[in-house]
Amino acid sequence: MSQEIRNLEPKVLWNKFADLNAVPRPSKKEERVIEFMKDFGKNLGLETFEDDIRNVIIRKPATAGMENRKAIVMQGHLDMVHQKNSDTVFDFDTQGIDMYVDGDWVRAKGTTLGADNGLGVAAIMAILESTDIPHPAIEALFTIDEETGMTGALNLKGGILEGQILLNLDTEEDDEIDIGCAGGIDVTATAEYDEEETPEGSVGYKITVKGLKGGHSGMDIHKGLGNANKIMNRLLFDGFDNFGLQISEILGGSLRNAIPRESVAKVIIAEVYDEAFVYDMQQIVNDIKTELKTTEPNLEVVFEKLDSVPAKVMPSIAQFYFVRAMYAAHNGVYAMSADFADLVETSNNIAKVVLGQGNLSVQCLTRSSVETAKFDLANSLRSAFELMGCEVELSGSYPGWTPNAESEILDVLVPLYEKQGGEKPRVVACHAGLECGILGTNYPEMDMISFGPTIHGAHSPDERASISSSQKFWKFLVEILANIPMK
Q: Which parts of the chain span the membrane according to its record (predicted)?
């Protein structure tokens, strides 16, 4: 861990972030970070416990003179998205994140940084440890598995929390104050097929789509970024229709909430078409690169002839339906909000495709700030894949967070922000899946708000956190705590 991170201002924030990032904390494997956080609270002499699902709650009494203010919940999630570049050697299960300073940014070497939501968690830790920052009674809520299922928020029972105001520290633009977010649902299509022997006279190719930016499948879905799975399918569709290409295997993308950056396929074609196939594919690649030259300037598609031809392939009839279902399945923005300017209402990310050895799986994450629209798009995807014979499961549904323009805590934050920076913040709803809507189902009277420092490239190895923005965020947070409304 570079000492230069610990020397950044405010040191109380960056040191806690460095401590946290030394602990492996992948989604669904949060055992170590849970124990780390419990030890942290207990070592401060604060009431510390975990609930039935293993969320960690730490309570700190109000500082002198703040006892008559409303109690607050400060909330962040412990897990982080694990993504790395293909040429980066790194074990997320055992290693801490390797960070460095790049101008105004803190980055990680070839991996995700964990600023989502590590900086928010670090800020809460710094407040809990502080002895000179005025604040009301605090319940620090550290949820688990936010990134791959919202498990912690979904399973937090009513009656555990006593706070009246919730500060969620999980947004990624420091000029935004969020008062609403999208809900989501997982769409998973699976099928089995009988492989067939590779025909005589075939040659094998490995096709690799790489160099895409990737990113957050909610916050970045409107940017027109390339989806490696859709690009790969475009190549496979053309190769199948024009040259009888058959697929042996595909591995594309990784996590549902990350726009896929890479896809690798092994295919075969008749040797007689070899030269024409390579020429035709290159023309299509050139077309795709031209289409994406602004948003994806580093896109690469590599064709490598295999030394040994794959022994088994997907039958032509099954492949006919597969590549067409993939073409029909919507990816990207589906609808924009009619109520909020420039807000994505509904979208889908075709996140992961795995095909081979007689099995197929396509994993999507569908988001919407309108519950009925979420299921409408999910059913559209379901229909496309059921028509090819897939079993389709809709799971992990979680609600959005309905904006409350009359929020009391919003009336506190807006003038404080304007006083601090000389300009008004943007009060928005976002297309990411914040936990506020879920928490609100069991705590409907709790007044909620979300804000945070500027983080770009979340859910990708390009993730980076602004140093100057983190300073601004910390100052803003301290001012908010001093101005929580009276009981």
A: none
